[in-house]
């Protein structure tokens, strides 16, 4: 593999920040090189380039003061007034909750669908914008490389419960096995109760549950009424060991050639008991609301998981931009066969949280509203 100076710089930055680069980082560097060649070939005037784009980093590559600033911005978002009227969503109490509400409402039309990746890219970007524009954060949304600590996710400093973590595991509770879907049960982890330390120890989860998987958590109607409770987690090494190792990510990126195979393998097939890296990250955290398909963004760790989902897609796109940068495939509803397939011309509507963009304008991280890459 040939490495240019930029990739070497990225890899070096990663090495310094994290101790080691993995095979996915190598694919990311190769993708960037491809992408640079592709952009040059396409030509034209670009305002956003690979050189001036913002760089989203792995959480553990951030300096302590950068972590502090990020955490403070999330706590700030949790204190700002919502823009979504309570006449429509009675449970919203903050700008943070606006994002949870949107995910609850739109879940059936943005998962297992043609817009799954593009919608989440746009949604995550609006969250990052809110942190920056409304809470003074000067960095970008960090990602969680699941693989680095897939053997033992609780050893990730991100979940060590310190002031510079995203809080840790939930308190040990005597709950049973966790039923993700009928016939898909994972053994109880060592937590399950409220998180006991770290920045989000006092956080109020206001919306949901809607589709809880923990035996000790009950659903609450449409999930939109006010139901304040603690943030709980049941971090699972069983899930990360089986689904989010480096080899799992590499297989996804290197063996799926078309967008439909890629996104299907990424999201797994619950009916056959395979969760893919997408379900893998969600159910590694588990608990309430992280394990709830609808309410999962109510755990601040959601945005780290979905940044990594977005990064894996970005890497896959960059490895063959000509064929992968402008394509979507799949239906328009998570339930049953779709009455129609999605297209690049479909509007991607975030309601109160952002203007509608054509799906086709949300497929490149350096076009449309976006200007970022992953480092
Ligand atoms: C949580 O609340 C307790 C009691 O009010 C307070 O002492 C503590 O500092 C708070 N912790 C955080 C991280 O906000
Ligand atoms: C959606 O696309 C798939 C694959 O191209 C095709 O088999 C299917 O018939 C399409 N569904 C509809 C409703 O058009
Ligand atoms: Cu989602």
TrEMBL record:
InterPro entries: Di-copper_centre_dom_sf, Tyrosinase/Hemocyanin, Tyrosinase_Cu-bd. GO terms for molecular function: metal ion binding; oxidoreductase activity. Residues 111-128, 299-310 form the Tyrosinase copper-binding domain. Keywords: Copper, Metal-binding, Oxidoreductase, Signal. It comes from the Eukaryota. PANTHER family: N-ACETYL-6-HYDROXYTRYPTOPHAN OXIDASE IVOB-RELATED, TYROSINASE FAMILY MEMBER. This is Tyrosinase copper-binding domain-containing protein.
């Amino acid at each position: 593999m040939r490495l240019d100076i930029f990739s070497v710089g990225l890899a070096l930055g990663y090495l310094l920040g994290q101790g080691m680069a993995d095979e996915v980082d190598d694919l990311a560097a190769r993708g960037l090189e491809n992408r640079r060649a592709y952009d040059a070939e396409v030509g034209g005037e670009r305002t956003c380039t690979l050189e001036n784009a913002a760089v989203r980093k792995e959480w553990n590559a951030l300096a302590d003061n950068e972590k502090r600033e990020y955490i403070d911005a999330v706590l700030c978002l949790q204190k700002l007034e919502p823009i979504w009227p309570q006449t429509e969503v009675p449970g919203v109490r903050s700008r943070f909750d606006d994002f949870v509400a949107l995910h609850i409402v739109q879940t059936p039309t943005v998962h297992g669908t043609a817009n799954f990746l593009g919608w989440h890219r746009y949604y995550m970007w609006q969250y990052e914008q809110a942190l920056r524009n409304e809470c003074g954060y000067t960095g970008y949304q960090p990602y969680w490389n699941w693989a680095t600590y897939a053997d033992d996710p609780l050893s990730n400093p991100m979940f060590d419960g310190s002031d510079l973590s995203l809080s840790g595991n939930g308190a040990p509770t005597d709950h049973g096995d966790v039923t993700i879907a009928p016939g898909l049960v994972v053994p109880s982890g060592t937590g399950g109760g409220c998180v006991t330390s770290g920045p989000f120890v006092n956080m109020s989860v206001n919306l949901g549950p809607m589709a809880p998987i923990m035996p000790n958590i009950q659903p609450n109607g449409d999930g939109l009424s006010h139901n304040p409770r603690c943030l709980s987690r049941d971090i699972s090494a069983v899930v990360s060991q089986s689904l989010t190792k480096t080899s799992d990510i590499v297989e996804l990126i290197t063996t799926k050639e078309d967008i439909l195979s890629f996104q299907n393998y990424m999201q797994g097939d619950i009916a056959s008991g395979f969760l893919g890296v997408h379900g893998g990250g969600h159910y590694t955290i588990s608990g309430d609301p992280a394990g709830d398909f609808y309410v999962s963004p109510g755990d601040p760790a959601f945005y780290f998981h979905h940044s990594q989902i977005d990064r894996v897609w970005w890497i896959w796109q960059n490895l063959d931009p000509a064929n992968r940068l402008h394509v979507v495939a799949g239906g328009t509803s998570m339930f049953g066969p779709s009455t129609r397939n999605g297209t690049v011309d479909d509007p991607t509507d975030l309601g109160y949280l952002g203007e509608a963009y054509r799906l086709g304008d949300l497929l490149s991280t350096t076009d449309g509203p976006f200007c970022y890459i992953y480092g």
